[in-house]
Amino acid sequence: MVDIIADLELGGFTVYQQGAAPATLPVEFVTVFENPSEDILHADNKPRQLRQEWTLIFYTKNAEKLYSGLLAVIKHLKSKGYSINGQGGDAAGAWEGYDARAVDVVNVEDLEV
């Protein structure tokens, strides 16, 4: 099973599980919310693949980096084998003074038979 938080940290991004960010926040960071996963591609009544999905939100106090920051996250995750459709969209900022954009990320993993 993949670890998207570790993969993002390896790319140099500051990452928090959604709802677990500290009181003092950096200028830029990413939050990760894990959506429900599902077994897919069944054979002989057994799942052969697992589909995982996350919603990532890129936050920044520097509006000029709003798009390029999220694109850097997307590029890094694609290099790790994740699937991302598009370039994200607006996200309601949870913290005053931050701009935010969100993107959905998918990973399909083969399961051991």
Record field, number of beta strands: 7
Overall number of domains: 1
CATH class, anyone? Alpha Beta
Find the CATH topology.
STM4215-like
Helix content: 10-25%
- Overall, the morphology is elongated
What is the CATH architecture annotation? 2-Layer Sandwich
How big is the Rg? 15 Å
N-to-C series of helices and strands: HEEEEHEEE
Low-confidence stretches: none
Average pLDDT value?
Answer: 91
Strand content: 35-45%
Q: Termini distance?
A: 15 Å
> What profile does the largest beta sheet have?
7 strands, mixed
Structural category is alpha+beta
**What oligomerization state is this entry in?**
single chain
Give a quick set of tags describing it:
2 helices, single chain, 113 residues, STM4215-like, alpha+beta, 7 strands
What does the model show?
By secondary structure, the protein is of the alpha+beta class. It has a single domain (4-110), classed as 2-Layer Sandwich (STM4215-like), CATH 3.30.2000. The protein has two helices and seven strands. Strands 1, 2, 3, 4, 5, 6 and 7 form a seven-stranded mixed β-sheet that branches. Strand 3 and strand 4 (46-60) form a beta hairpin. The protein is elongated. 17% of the residues are buried.
Topology:
Layout: H1 4-10, E1 15-17, E2 28-34, E3 38-43, E4 46-60, H2 66-79, E5 83-84, E6 89-90, E7 99-110
Parallel strand pairs: 1-2
Antiparallel strand pairs: 2-4, 3-4, 4-7, 5-7, 6-7
Q: In a few lines, what is going on in this structure?
A:
With 113 residues, the protein is of the alpha+beta class.
